Fold:
Amino acid sequence: MSRFILMVLVGSLLGAARASAQDQDRGDSAARSMPAPHMADRATMMKMMDSSEARLDQLVRAMNQATGPRRVQAMAEVINELVAQRKMMRAHMRGMMDRW
Structure:
C-alpha cells in the first residue's frame, strides 16, 4: 500500500514538473515572438519625450507671462503644440500595435 502511495506521489510530482516546463516553454516562445525594444530606441524615445515636454513648458511659460492679444496668441500656440504631440503619440502607438 505504501508503495502505491509513493508511486502516485512521484507520478503527480513528475506530471506537475512536466506541466510547469511546458508553461515555461510557452512563455519563452511568447516573449521571443514579441518585439523587444532596443535600448537605443528607448533612449531616443525618451529624448524625444523630454524635448516635447521642454517645448511645452516653454510655451506655457510664455503664455502665462503674456498679456492682452499676445496672450490669446500664446494660448493658441500651446493648444497647437498639444495637438501636434498627441498626433505624434497616436501615430507611434499605432505603429507599435501594427507590429503585433
Observations:
- Residues 38-100 form one domain.
